[in-house]
Amino acid sequence: MSTQKAKMPQNDWRPFFKEECVKPYFKELNRKIGQEYANHTVYPPVDKVFNAFEQTPYGEVKAVILGQDPYHEPGQAMGMCFSVPEGVDLPPSLVNIYQELSDDLGIAPAAHGNLTAWAKQGVLLLNATLTVRRGAANSHSGLGWQTFTDAVISHINQKDAPVVFLLWGGFAQGKASLLNNPKHLVLRAPHPSPLSAYRGFFGCKHFSQANAFLEANGVGMIDWRLQ
Description:
Layout: H1 14-21, H2 24-39, E1 42-43, H3 51-55, E2 63-67, H4 92-105, H5 116-119, E3 123-127, E4 132-133, H6 145-157, E5 164-168, H7 170-173, E6 185-189, H8 206-216
Parallel strand pairs: 2-3, 2-5, 5-6
Antiparallel strand pairs: 1-4
């Protein structure tokens, strides 16, 4: 990977990226990820690694959904957590997200899994690790991405405008210590995967809670429909 091939965002995230890219940890991360792309099948495609930032400029972030790492099967990962391109079968976690959305707000499940419409409204769909080897979940979790994405989360925490953070599962909730700005709202629930959705993700009502918070703070609500 090179930062050029990875298409650093051409928006107001760029100063943050330029600051991080010169740090020793990021240079080492760049080297390791470059080797991974050269020697293995890695997802997402290199030009989609920073897609979440391209789709959701920093100044427009009003919600953050935090995932762990990209989908690791062919054709799924598109650089935004939980999102898959249109025409790709819905992963089980996304099916459960749609179910909770239906139960919470009465929004019928979409026939596709492309969440770009959320991203365009200010929902940053952030994975803690931005790349993965094919068929090997969490294979890149120790390469340095989490240092970078922790910096991203801390950067968003500094925003004056209210932001709602949706932390689903123990891994995402482990990032809550980075969020100490009283202007923001942190929502916690079990992960939407089939292994844990019935332990409290279903019924968490995070979508309606997020919109109530945004509306109460004079921020435009999110239209969660994807049709």
